[in-house]
Amino acid sequence: MQFTKKQLEEAAKKNIISPQQAEALQEFFIAQSQDVPRFTFTHVLYYFGGLIAIGAMTLFMNLGWESFGGAGIFSISVLYAAIGLKITKVFSAGDLAIPAGICATFVVCLTPLAIYGLQQWLGVWPDESVYRDYHRYIKWNWLYMELGTLAAGVIIAWKYKYPFLIMPIAVTLWYMSMDITAMISGGDTTWELRKLVSLYTGLLMIGLAFWVDIRSYQKADYAFWIYIFGAAAFWGGLSSQNSDSELSKFIYFCINLLMIGVGVLLVRRVFVVFGALGSCAYLGHLAFDVFEDSWLFPVSLTVIGLGIIFLGVLWQKHEKYITAKSRSLLPVPLRELLQARS
């Protein structure tokens, strides 16, 4: 739970704490949260600058770089990486965790470009595709770049232990799942296959994120980005499945409700957002397709909505008892994780 300066001042006015204690607590909370990403102008500058630099060497890479040839691309990438590591070291020594993490992530994101340049230099690049296609198409020959990125990501994350470093690792795992599928299927990447791969890859990434969460919640939020891309891959694959069965559509709705529940339980908003989108899509299907001419459907939804609000009131009244009782039935690691998130 976070406290604002205004809340601390209100507590001091009611003599719960003294004004001196309120000021000391405010300074303590600021010191504790300086390495936690927040929506402040300083942090916006950090991430905006970092994402521009990362995007320049990944998503926005143009064909002009091909003129440097494999040796030139590799050499420039290594030079950039060396500069990035040096800046990371300087920021880390100055206890500037967020800019240090962003610069370290920049180095990891350079890895596929360096490997691409090295393969071009050695003459082992298998086709006419270029680096900018890495983020656009599914191909088996990206696997060397992805394996190298995972290795670099794990090594740098092990050394510096900044949560933002998990972002390129999570993205690479997602890319790799699709490219391995293309390799196994002999290049056949139909939409049906892509949807299934996305669905099951997302489930695996969510499981990995939960395992990371259990093991590392006391240190930092290393699971955040794995949850993000895992939930996106799972929900995207699930939502793109085709079905003419109303039962299947209802099961889809139930899975989305379950995602909302999991999001609330683990305090992970990404599950709540995707679950809410899926639930609304199902209700829209009922309104415009199944009960298109029924005047009773909006009335029923209104009653259900008000009933949920009433359920929330009951929950608020008995939250402490229900929470304590239900958590006592959970395994100790999960119980400790939920208590830390409270």
List keywords for this structure.
342 residues; mainly alpha; 3 domains; 74% helix; flat
Question: Can you walk me through this structure?
Answer:
The structure is a single chain. By secondary structure, the chain is mainly α. The protein has three domains: 34-172, no CATH class; 190-292; 304-342, no CATH class. The chain contains 13 helices and no strands. Helix 6 (143-160) runs antiparallel to helix 7, helix 7 packs parallel to helix 9 (224-239) and helix 9 (224-239) packs parallel to helix 11. It is flat.
Summarize the SSE layout with pairings.
Layout: H1 5-13, H2 19-32, H3 41-56, H4 69-93, H5 97-122, H6 143-160, H7 166-184, H8 191-216, H9 224-239, H10 246-266, H11 269-290, H12 296-327, H13 332-341
Helix pairs in contact: 1-2, 3-5, 4-5, 5-6, 6-7, 7-8, 7-9, 8-9, 9-11, 10-11
Total number of helices: 13
Query: Mean pLDDT, rounded to whole units?
Result: 84
Low-pLDDT residue intervals, each spanning 5 or more residues? none
Beta strands, count: 0
Q: Which descriptor suits the 3D outline?
A: flat
Structural class by helix and strand composition:
mainly alpha
Q: Which series of helices and strands comes N to C? A: HHHHHHHHHHHHH
Helix content: over 70%
Q: How far apart lie the N and C ends?
A: 7 Å
How can the largest sheet be summarized? none
* C-alpha Rg (nearest Å): 24 Å
Q: How much beta, percentage-wise? A: under 5%
Number of domains: 3
